[in-house]
Design brief:
Layout lengths: L6 H16 L6 H8 L3 H7 L3 H31 L5 H12 L7 H8 L5 H22 L4 H25 L4 H14 L1
Helix pairs in contact: 1-2, 1-4, 4-7, 5-8, 5-9, 6-7, 7-8, 8-9
Length: 187
Amino acid sequence: MEKPSSARERILETAQRLFYRNGIRATGVDRIIAESGVAKMSFYRNFPSKKDLVLAFLERRHEFWMGWFRASMAAQIEREGRFRLAFVAEFLREWFESPDFRGCAFINTAAETAELSDDERQRVVGHKDELCSYIAGLLRPGAAGESLAKARLAVLIIDGAIVRAQMCGDPAIAGEAGVLLEMLERA
C-alpha cells in the first residue's frame, strides 16, 4: 500500500486505523504522531486538538462506510432488479466476517465518549440520519412517510445487529437481522 503523501493524510490514515481498532480514548496523540511519521508541530498545524482529529476521522469514516454501503446496495439491486431490505443483511454479514470488524465507529464513539461535543454528536447522528434517508429512498421513493418510518426501524435493527456482532463475535447475527428486516419489509 502506498504511503499517503501529505502529513494531513498520513495523520488521518493512522488515526482511522488506530481509532477504529483501539478506540478514541485509548489512542493518544503521541502515538498517532509516532505512527504517522509526522512532526508534532505538523500534527498541531493540521489538527489543533484531538477533537479536531476525531471530527475529521468521523467525516472520513462516514464517507468510506456510506460509499461502501451504497456500492453494495447498487450491485445487489442490479443483480436482482429491485431493492430488498434483506440486501442489508448480506452487507452486514460481509462486514461482520471481515478480520478488522470492530463495530460501528459512530456507535463506538458515542459509547466511549462520556459527553459528546455538539460537533461530535452532529457527526454521529448525521451518519445514522444519512443511512436512514438512503434506505428510505430505496424502499419506496413515492411513499416518503411510510418509507422513512420503515427505514428508521431498519436502522434500529442494523445498529442492534452491529452491537451484537461486536459483542459476540458471531457474523451469523447478520442472518438474524435479515429475518427481522424481511419481516419489516412485509409489514
